[in-house]
Amino acid sequence: MNSLEEKFNHLVTGITRTRRVEAASSYSLKLVGLSEIKAGSNVRSYESDVFTASGYQWRLILYPLGNDNDGGKDHFSIYVRLETLVSNLPKNWEIQVDMKFLVFNQNHKKYLTVQAQFIELSTLKDQKNGYAVKDTCTFRVDIAILKPAEKLETVTFLHNPPNNKFTWKIFHFSNLSDQEFVLSDQFLAGQRYWKIRVDPKREREGVGVYIVPQTHLPNCAIASSYVMFKLKIRNQLNGNHIERTDICNLFLSSGDRGHGVPKLITQKDLYDKSKGFLVKDTIILEVEMLCMSQTQVISK
Questions:
Q1: Does 300 reside within a domain?
Q2: Is 202 or 161 the better-scoring residue by pLDDT?
Q3: 293 or 75, which is more confident?
Q4: Rounded alpha-carbon distances, angstroms, from residue 128 to 30, 33, 84, 110, 256
Q5: Domain-embedded: residue 299
Q6: DSSP strands (E only) in 72-221
Q7: How high is the pLDDT of residue 9?
Q8: What's the confidence (pLDDT) of residue 38?
């Protein structure tokens, strides 16, 4: 096999489920606020912090609404990905992995151990089944050698987090009409910095506005960031602002070009002085983070 995907991303048929009292050996991840993850288009995976198991580095990859491309429709899908660089491995390397995924049942005080396809969303989210009690569930992965988990990663979904608004006033906007995009200064929200991207090019039918993830704060886990947000262009003559709440629950990783609204306002309405959005050649944009993930990793 020539690539990581060929080695690890093949579909395993069949399913095995058992319950056990002891925890998984390699890594533990807790989701808090599970109900905030709602169905929507373009939902991506959440990638955990890197952890070490059996001498190699890995990440947990979660698809909270299922991975349709791998037979996971209507399931909570979970994978691991090898993070150790291939260049650091010996020639003709091969790894044989005995891998199990676990989810804690808070009613039975035991872990449901699953090999192959994971768990149906309807089963996971029904509180009487014991997996998502008080809107919290815990997943673990068992890779090869059983030993105490080295890290506990807790992902908390915060509704209306503090300092969740940023306003960007753009002067001389008409001078930017030939630009593909313009970026704001960075601002801090949650555990990382962000920027607003606006696409002002006059040839387009509308003006696109997006949020773009930047670097994390020092000493924070370098994990994906879940964010639900509202974009607004302010009306400077009256209170008839234009705003759009993103209906997609996204996991944005560093390096993304961002996500937002391709046409927050039409060029026609923007440049119509009677509308009140472009006043003295200035527009005012605002982003409000409605829900964000906060990741904490504790070494045991």
A1: no
A2: 161
A3: 293
A4: 19, 17, 40, 15, 38
A5: no
A6: 75-82, 99-105, 110-116, 119-120, 136-143, 151-159, 165-170, 182-183, 187-189, 192-199, 206-216
A7: 35
A8: 66
